[in-house]
Amino acid sequence: MKKIAVQISPEAKSAYFKDYIQVAKQELQQVMTVSDIELRQTGALEFFELDCEQADISPLLRLSFVQGLYSTEGKALFPIDKLAGFRLHDDFVFGSKYRGKTNERLTQMLINVGLSAIGGDKGKRLKLLDPMCGRATTLLWAMRYGITARGIEQDAKAIADIRQSLKKWSKIHRQKHKVMEGFIGKPNKRAAGKFLDFSAEDTSMRVVVGNAREADKIFKKEKFDLLVSDLPYGVQHFTTDKTRNPIAVISDSVAAWKNCLKSGGAIVLAFNSYIPKRSVLIQTFEQGGFEALAFSAAHRMSESIVRDVVVFKVSH
Ligand SMILES: C[S@@+](CC[C@H](N)C(=O)[O-])C[C@H]1O[C@@H](n2cnc3c(N)ncnc32)[C@H](O)[C@@H]1O
Fold first, then answer.
1. Ligand 1 centre from 66 Cα, in Å?
2. Model confidence over 42-54: pLDDT tens digits?
3. Ligand 1, residues 227, 237, 243, 272: which to mutate, most atoms within 8 A of Cβ?
4. What's the 58 CA to ligand 1 centre distance in angstroms?
C-alpha cells in the first residue's frame, strides 16, 4: 500500500460548482474501494489523500476531477509520471464549444461510473449508446476510452456541426481518420435516419438523426454495454414534444432502451433533479424492469438546475 495524493483539478469546479469536493468523492468511492479519504489543502491546491495499491493508479488517472497524482512522504509530494492513456487529442472532446454542450468532465464521470457499474471491460471491446447525443461529447469521450460509440440526435443540424469539428481537429492534430455519411433506410427530406460515421485510433462512432424512443429500431442489430446520456434540462434542450419535462420521452423510451442493453449492461443518466425529480425518474425505470444503484452526484448548477446522476441496471 502506498499513500497517494490525488490533486483535484480546477476543472472540477467548473463541472460541479460549489459541490465539487463532494461529487469528486462520490465518483472516487464509486470507482474504487477506498476506506479513508482525507482532504488536504496546500495553499490553493487541493488533494485527496488515500492508501492505494500500485494496480489502482490507472483508474485514478481517469477520474473526471483528477489533475495529477503524487506519492507522499510526510508533507512532501512526488509527482507520479503517468498518463491516463486516452486515444485521440483532448481537443476532440474539449475543443469545440457550443450552446447546450454537456460539461466534458461530467460526461467523463458518467462513463467512469457506468464502467464501474458493469465491472469494467474485462478485456473486451465495449459498446456505448447515447440516445440523446447532441453534438457527440459522450461519443467522443467513449472513443477516447476505446469504446465503440453510437448516438441518436433529433436535431438534424447536429450532423453538419459534428462533421465540421471532426474535420477541424483531425486536420489540426494530423489525426488519421475516416468519415462516412449515409442513410439508414431511404433518404428523406426530414433527414431521419441520416448518419455520420467517424473512425480513428482503432475505434469508431456513429451518429444517427432520429428519436431516442426508437433506439432499438435504429440500432436493431446492435446491443450495448452502456447507455449514457445527459437528458434535456434547459430551455435550449427541448425534447421532440417541445416540453421542458423529458419524463414523457423517457417513459416512452424505457422499453426500447432496455432492448438495446446487453445482459449485465447499465444506464447512466445526468438530469436536472427539478424536472424530473429523482424519485419520479427512478419510478419510471422501475416500472420498466430496472433498479437504481445507490450512486448519486447532486450538484447545484444554477437557481433552476440541480444536476444529478442516476445509474440503472436491469432487475428482471
Ligand atoms: C442535454 S442535451 C445533450 C448534449 C450532448 N451531451 C452534448 O454535449 O452535445 C440533450 C439533447 O437531447 C436531444 N433530444 C431531446 N429529445 C430527443 C429525442 N426524443 N430523441 C433524440 N434526441 C433528443 C436534444 O436535441 C439535445 O441535443
1. 27
2. 999 999 999 988 7
3. 237
4. 31
Question: Ligand 1 pocket: which residues have CB below 6 Å?
Answer: 100-102, 132-135, 137-138, 152-155, 211-213, 230, 232, 237, 239-240, 249
The reply to whether 91-314 shares the fold of 2-79 is: no
Answer whether CATH 2.60.120 is correct for domain 2-79.
no
> Is residue 305 scored above 80 in pLDDT?
yes
Distance of alpha carbon 137 from alpha carbon 141, whole angstroms: 6
pLDDT of residue 266: 98
Q: Ligand 1 center to residue 114 CA distance, Å?
A: 19
**Domain boundaries defined on the chain:** 2-79, 91-314
Give the global pTM: 0.96
Which one-letter amino acid corresponds to residue 139?
L
Which superfamily, per CATH, for 91-314? Vaccinia Virus protein VP39 (3.40.50.150)
d(CA 103, CA 100): 9
Give which of 187, 189, 57, 83 is closest to 144, Cα–Cα: 83
- Write the DSSP string, 152-180: EES-THHHHHHHHHHHHHHHHTT---EEE
